[in-house]
Design goal:
The chain is α+β, with helices and mostly antiparallel strands.
Length: about 625
């Protein structure tokens, strides 16, 4: 078999190629690149520009195995953010190797690897299995009662009262609040979550992300009215402390959901109903909180998130407000990181727009202040931001270590398996469209987002198939368990942290918000045992598996509707092959990228043996099927 030497060139930020991928300033780090030994470069250089000037560091042949030559150079880290790439001269022709691949011309400096030094990212997150819980819908314990707090919305020409009701656990979701004039609660509680810790532990969960738990009047609680108090419908502070303590005792971390872009109408800073001793910004144009918000024509015309008038926008330029949110010891952020709560991190709601309201953007400044305020309390806290867009705008050594990976994971997989694209911001229009999307296009979208970030971010990205803001993936594939199996397999084998939205593991379905927030199915007769077993098997495969957690990612074959990639860590290799076609496929999988000539693999699902023959593996996959191949 003729080897295309250009496709065998590889390097990344993993321990396979960077001797220390969490260095300190002054550390000497060895960087390596490999190439098929049939091709001998004239010269190999590592290119760096630590102070704006470009330096070409000679890389020497360090070792050779049966397949590759490895070129290496040691470099002392002198900057907090090292940009680097590789320059090769082969047969008198120049080539640049970057995270995006090999170029025979000099690409933009943005096409570079990045290594952070003195980085304070959380160390526990890459090995985590996350589970997202929408508190009102997970588990009810005790006699939940709705309190008498009212939802009254005031407009220039009318008032609307929304009645808060408590539904039975098996009642259907009310899909329109304003048509029914009701806000539906199901009564999930902290004690309910605590009672289900054995369930979470048995499933294999090691971290949970809780949607907002603070005092609010809606069931989603993104309309916070006090950042310092839990919602009494969920329980007391003591109940919350007990929950967190029990989670920690059982080896389960917990992160909270921070809503810093807006408050609710009934927060005492805004105070639409005049319920507080000190008048809020809505009640009094001279209120001490008037500069916490944006008023165009007081009191009814104010800026709000996505023009949703129950969520007035905060003016994050205001220093006093930032102190209350970030910097004070009892701030919205610090209070919950400190004893006695000791949470393990934050998910930032609407992170992509924080501080971007008007022409004077302060998003960079705010993100850095947010980072420092969290890390000075808990250096090992996880900071993850919400964005449906390019995560590169958020991830950085001094900002977020990860985002919810909608664009870099969920979106391309959904487009490929479902032929659907959703837009969240089409005012009064249709946000869902049918498209044709090949495996090759999916692989490109995965790659361009993945490679835009340092490896240190890639292994911490929050991968998900759905959330409280999207349709359930099982609904997207119209209940097709074959497609669902492919998606879940990718969730646990792709680079980054797998996250399960509560109930996915038992086959819960749901259209968009609010239908995707149905109460958890606890009746085992109604749970899908095939799906539950799939999740359990994949969680067991992933946990403690250094290849899937820290290993390099390399795409090895994408053609038609076949998508195949490898994860490798030191001498271990895992292959993942997916058939997104409605017909059975006989696949000849080339493995010359990996230097595999005589290995034997075993199918995770089929239990069959697969032997490498002349750099190829032959595998048959049924329509909409996948396989994970593990080295024997």
């Amino acid at each position: 078999m003729k080897i295309n030497w250009k496709k065998t060139i590889f390097s990344d930020g993993s321990i396979n190629f960077v001797s220390n991928n969490n260095p300190r300033i002054g550390d000497k780090v060895k960087f390596s690149i490999r190439i098929h030994k049939s091709k001998k470069p004239d010269n190999v250089f590592m290119v760096v520009w630590p102070k704006g000037e470009v330096f070409y560091l000679v890389m020497n042949l360090e070792k050779s195995d049966n397949y590759f030559d490895w070129y290496s150079v040691e470099y002392e880290i002198k900057t907090y953010k090292l940009f680097y790439r590789f320059y090769l001269i082969v047969d008198g022709k120049e080539y640049y190797y970057t995270p995006y691949g090999l170029y025979d011309y000099e690409p933009s400096d943005y096409f570079s690897f990045i290594l952070y030094a003195d980085c304070d990212y959380s160390m526990w997150t890459p090995e985590s299995i996350f589970y997202q819980i929408f508190p009102d819908r997970f588990c009810r314990s005790g006699d939940t009662q709705i309190d008498d707090r009212k939802i009254i919305l005031k407009f220039k020409d009318k008032e609307i009262e929304i009645k808060r009701i408590l539904s039975n656990w098996d009642e259907p979701i009310c899909k329109s609040i304003f048509k029914t004039k009701t806000m539906q609660f199901y009564g999930g509680t902290f004690k309910g979550i605590q009672e289900k810790i054995p369930y979470l532990k048995e499933l294999g969960i090691t971290a949970i992300y809780l949607n907002p738990i603070f005092l609010a009047r809606t069931n989603h609680r993104y309309d916070i009215e006090d950042y310092t108090k839990p919602d009494p419908l969920l329980g007391t502070e003591e109940d919350l402390r007990n929950l967190i303590d029990e989670l920690h005792k059982n080896g389960i971390r917990v992160i909270f959901d921070a809503v810093l872009n807006h408050t609710g109408l009934f927060h005492h800073w805004f105070d639409m109903l005049g319920e507080n001793k000190k008048p809020g910004a809505f009640s009094d144009p001279n209120s001490e909180y008037k500069d916490f918000y944006y008023f165009n024509d007081h009191p009814y015309e104010f800026e709000s998130w996505m023009d949703c008038k129950i969520l007035p926008q905060l003016n994050l330029k205001n220093k006093e407000l930032r102190n209350k949110l970030l910097h004070n010891k009892d701030s919205a952020i610090k209070k919950w990181l400190l004893p006695p709560f000791n949470i393990d991190g934050w998910r930032m709601d609407t992170a992509s727009i924080l501080g971007k309201f008007d022409l004077q953007h302060i998003d960079e400044e705010f993100s850095r202040e947010l980072h420092s305020s969290i890390k000075e309390v808990n250096p090992d806290a996880y900071i993850m931001g919400e964005t449906f867009y390019d995560p590169k705008q958020l991830v950085d050594r001094e900002k977020y270590e990860a985002t919810m990976n909608y664009r870099g994971f969920m979106s391309p997989i959904k487009k490929w398996l479902c032929g659907i694209i959703n837009f969240m911001s089409v005012p009064g229009g249709n946000g869902e469209h049918r498209i044709k999307f090949s495996a090759k296009k999916m692989a490109r979208q995965l790659a361009i987002i993945r490679n835009s970030m340092p490896y240190q971010n890639q292994i911490r990205m929050f991968n998900l198939l759905n959330s409280h803001d999207t349709k359930r993936f099982l609904t997207e594939v119209k209940g097709d368990l074959r497609k669902y199996k492919i998606a879940v397999t990718l969730l646990f084998t792709y680079i980054g942290i797998p996250s399960i939205y509560y109930g996915d593991e038992v086959g819960m379905e749901g259209e968009g918000d609010p239908d995707c927030r149905r109460p958890m199915i606890w009746d085992e007769k109604r749970q899908n045992k095939e799906i539950k077993n799939l999740y359990k098997r994949l969680i067991n495969l992933r946990k403690g598996n250094k290849t899937l957690i820290y290993g390099s990612f390399i795409e090895i074959w994408t053609k038609g509707d076949i998508f195949a990639f490898a994860r490798f860590y030191q001498d271990d290799i895992i292959l993942v092959i997916c058939n997104g076609n409605n017909k059975k496929k006989d696949i000849v999988l080339p493995l010359y990228h990996l230097g595999i000539t005589d290995k034997v693999f075993k199918g995770f699902y089929s239990n069959s043996e697969y032997r490498v023959n002349e750099n190829n593996i032959y595998i048959n996959l049924e329509a909409f099927d996948c396989e994970i191949l593990l080295l024997k």
